[in-house]
Amino acid sequence: MKDQDLLELYIGFAPFLSTILGAGCEVVVHDLKDPNHSIVAIENNLSGRKIGDPMTDFPLERAREENFVANYPGRGKGKEFLSSSFFIKNEDRVIGILCVNKDVGYVHDIHLQFSALLEHFNLLPPVEEEIKENLDGSVGEIMKRRIEEAILQTGIPPSRMSLEEKKAITQGLKENGILSMRGAVNELAEQLSVSVPTIYRYMAR
After folding, report:
1. For the residues of 147-184, what is the DSSP string, one character each?
2. CB atoms < 10 A from the CB of 142, how many?
C-alpha cells in the first residue's frame, strides 16, 4: 500500500474517533513526509492549530521501538493536555502519527475546587499512620481477622512454622490483648493447627 493511501485511512478515521471521544479530545493526523507542514487532519480543535501547521517537538526516536506512547503530558495555547500518539507505519517505516490530546484543564480545575471544598469542611483523608481501625464486622470477625493478619505477617504457612515461631505469634497476640477476647484462644489453636492446651503453654512462657 502506498504511504498516501494508508494515511487517507487514518484521516477518514479521525472524525469518527473524535466523535466517540467527545469535544474534550482533539484528534490530529500528521504526515511526516513534510514535518514543516505535517498536520493533514484535525478534529475537535483545542490547540489552535490548523491543517498545514508543523510537527511538534515530539521525540520521534520513540517510534523506532514502540507502536504508540500513551498518556504523557502536553501543553499548548496555555492549556494542559493528556496526550497519546500512535505511530502510523508502512511496513517498518514511520510515515505519520495519529495523536489524541485530552483537555484536562476542566478536570484539573474541578479537582482543585473539590479539594478546597474537602479542606473547608475538614474532610480530607487523614495522613497514613500505623494505627488503623476497621469499622466492619462483629467482635468475633475482627478477632479472627487480627489473628489471620498476625500469621500472614510472618510470611510462613502454619504447617511450616517452628515451635518458636508459633510461640512468638502467641506472645504477640497476648501482648496486644487479642487472646483475652472470647474465643480467641480456640481460634488461634485452629489457625496454627495445635491444641488449645498448647496455646495456653505458649502463653505461659
Report:
1. HHHHHHHHTS-GGG--HHHHHHHHHHHHHTTGGGSTTH
2. 16
Of 47, 92, 87, whose CA–CA distance to 69 is shortest? 87
67 domain-assigned: yes
Predicted confidence at residue 133, as pLDDT, reads 45
Distance CA 128, CA 130 (A): 7
Contact 145, 137 (CB under 8 A): yes
Tens of pLDDT along 49-78? 999 999 887 777 778 788 999 999 888 777
- Whole-number pLDDT of residue 127: 56
Minimal CA–CA distance to 93: which of 64, 69, 66, 70? 64
How many domains are there within the chain? 2
DSSP designation for 50:
-
Nearest CA-CA partner of 28 in 16, 11, 4 = 11
For residue 66, the enclosing domain spans 3-108
Does residue 196 lie within any of the structural domains?
yes
pTM of the model: 0.57
Quick one: 36 and 104 in the same domain? yes
CA distance 60 to 4: 20
